[in-house]
Amino acid sequence: MSKIVSTLMGNKQYAEKMLLYPENHNQSISGGQSFAEIMFSEYENHSPESPASKESLFKGCALYKMIRMITFTIGGGAYLNFMGNEFGHPKRVEFPMPSNNFSYSLANRCWDLLENEDVHRNLFSFDKDLMKLDENQRVLSRGLPSIHHVNDTSMVISYIRGPLLFVFNFHPTNAYERYSVGVEEAGEYQIVLNTDEKKYGGHGLIKVDQYLQRTINKRQYLSPYRNLFSTLYIC
């Protein structure tokens, strides 16, 4: 977790010039794999109906959304995406080049995937709402976030950017109840974007009545980052 944060934050001196993107830049230049192809490959190579394959696809999609969200919200003032990756394009795309005899056969996007109510439409819905978050809250135009909590054991990352609190649990198996993170301003916090919502293909573990969380006064020692007096419990 510490390496993820330090890498995405980069050198603060050049933060305003940083352009972040979660994809493999070579995917449309030399046929490299996109994140979706890498994480969904186990699903693509097995029976889609097998429990193991479905679980692999779910975990891949969950990680895919979290990677895109943390990349978008933690870094500098610019974000890049390649067309089609907002819905997890499952096939590699290549420009015509000598290695493929200047063929156009791979120079296309599978837009028809959005016609079905499945993984790709769910991912597309999430990406649209992630972009709306920036439109409404001007995430990218704000200063760098205040990193409050990075735990390599629990694999939880938390930071504040503008009025928004971002909390990520990257642990592959552990979920946490009443996990506390520090906040700078006491009050009520309402969830505005949750990668686990059912409309994004998640489990929907957080119910509607849990969408409002109140802080408590309790000193949190979050060294080496910040010592904060207000605490938010994440259920």
What features would you describe in this structure?
The chain is about 25% helix and about 20% strand. The protein has 4 helices and 9 strands; from the N terminus they run αβααβαβββββββ. It has helices at about 1-10, 35-45, 50-75, 120-135, and strands at about 20, 80, 145-150, 155-160, 165-170, 180-185, 190, 210-220, 225-235. A hairpin with a 3-residue loop joins strand 8 (about 210-220) and strand 9. Helix 2 (about 35-45) runs antiparallel to helix 3 and helix 3 (about 50-75) packs parallel to helix 4 (about 120-135). Residues about 220-235 have low confidence and may be disordered.
Give the helix level as a range of percent.
25-40%
Distance between the termini: 21 Å
Alpha carbon gyration radius: 19 Å
DSSP strand content: 15-25%
Strand order of the largest sheet: 6-9-8-7
Low-pLDDT segments:
222-235
How would you characterize the largest beta sheet?
A: 4 strands, antiparallel
Q: What is the tally of helical segments?
A: 4
Number of strands: 9
Overall body shape? globular
Give the integer mean of the pLDDT values: 82
Based on the structure, what is the oligomeric state of the protein chains?
A: single chain
Succession of helices and strands: HEHHEHEEEEEEE
| Computed structural class | alpha+beta
